[in-house]
Write a structure and sequence with these properties.
about 375 residues, alpha/beta, Arc Repressor Mutant, subunit A, nine-stranded mixed β-sheet, three-stranded antiparallel β-sheet, about 40% helix
Length: about 375
């Protein structure tokens, strides 16, 4: 199902416009987005209810809902930059990515969108200040993967990422941290343009967004999430590459690491991954022989998938909730994360009531959801 209907915002399908408006609205991240869609049945109906939910959650000022005109303007700006949108409902959206926690409901892209849902995507990441040997090794691995019908995924950073993309431009996906119109680093402008013509570039953030420090971990979860495996070549203990590897492990994906000299700080993270059980990678054969097929992964992915979204019973959107119940939930929360199970035990309220109240509090900007279906109060 392809929901794209035209090259102007005013002619996009109503469903895409609603999805874009909801995810761009205040206090709505990917997890909250999908909770709202689960609760109300569609992004369009959710948009009609978020202001009321935020008010019930204790929001003093009206929540900012992304206007339809703003959504159309964003789409028109994308088109001017030669880019398009794809939503989680499109059959070309990555099935692998959809099995991860907090996956983006909408992405902008340039290039060959068919690469996105390839079931043979492999992420290759590493140090920006990489050695000549590591860049050469990364390029050779990328070439071997492409010759075996795989698609490489990386982050367009200098160093290892650049080497990977350069070696596989026709079958590579560059996931960027800013908007689709922001080339970072600028030295990769020519590479960016080549990939946009021959491969695929994707971005989660709106067009016009500058890549900030906090955006890179968000990007890294996408790199790991759309890949059957992640390869790490030279990664420090606090590097973005190690963050990507940890996301891959959280998503039940295989991790491969290239061993490095023990005293080189660029290798301490990748060496630690090997010590902790990652595959030791010395050649492309080590990788290709041990990458699980999507078909073999599929059952495990569905069984272990934890999108950390609340499971709303049908019809709870219209339930009448007492303010005393809202007060009880608030009194049970603190800045330390607690699980929904703990809240249930503490308050003896039905799960459906707890779920709705927590969603109200999220939209009001009063709580933050954490991994493991936990929630904490924002003071």
């Amino acid at each position: 199902m392809n929901l794209f209907t035209s090259n102007t915002g005013s002619n996009y399908s109503e469903d895409i416009i609603s999805i874009l408006r909801l995810i761009r609205s205040e206090n709505v991240g990917p997890k909250t987005f999908f909770n709202l869609v689960k609760l109300f049945g569609s992004a369009k109906i959710a948009l009609d209810n978020v202001a009321d939910f935020a008010k019930k959650g204790g929001r003093a000022k009206p929540i900012k809902i992304f206007a339809k005109s703003a959504a159309e303007k964003e789409i028109d700006l994308l088109v001017k930059h030669g880019a398009n949108l794809i939503t989680y409902k499109d059959n070309q959206y990555s099935e692998l990515l959809k099995q991860t926690s907090g996956f983006p409901p909408i992405l902008s892209y340039k290039g060959d969108i068919s690469l996105l849902n390839s079931r043979k995507n492999v992420a290759i990441v590493g140090a920006r200040n990489s050695s000549i040997n590591s860049r050469s090794f990364a390029g050779n691995i990328a070439k071997d993967l492409v010759s075996n019908d795989f698609v490489t995924v990386s982050g367009l950073a200098r160093g290892v990422d650049t080497a990977v993309h350069q070696a596989s431009t026709r079958r590579t996906i560059a996931v960027i941290a800013g908007g689709i119109d922001h080339i970072y680093p600028l030295e990769n402008k020519k590479l960016f343009e080549t990939i946009a013509q021959e491969g695929l570039i994707i971005a989660e953030l709106p067009v016009g967004s500058s890549p900030l420090a906090q955006h890179f971990p968000q990007r890294n979860r996408i790199i790991a999430g759309m890949s059957v495996a992640t390869v790490v070549i030279e990664a420090g203990l606090k590097s973005g590459s190690l963050i990507t590897a940890n996301f891959a492990l959280d998503f039940n994906r295989e991790v491969f690491a290239v061993p490095g000299f023990p005293l080189d700080p660029r290798c301490m993270g990748s060496n630690k991954l090997i010590k902790d059980g990652a595959y030791l990678l010395e050649s492309s054969e080590d990788l290709i022989e041990n990458i699980p097929s999507f078909e073999k992964m599929q059952k495990s992915l569905f069984e272990n998938s934890d999108n950390n979204n609340f499971d709303f019973p049908a019809g709870v959107g219209n339930m009448n909730i007492a303010n005393s119940d809202r007060k009880l939930i608030l009194e049970s929360l603190s800045s330390s994360p607690v699980s929904i199970e703990q809240i249930t035990s503490e308050t003896n309220l039905p799960l459906s009531v707890i779920y709705v109240i927590c969603l109200e509090l999220e939209l009001a900007g009063r709580v933050m959801r954490q991994a493991g279906n936990k929630i904490s109060l924002i003071y």
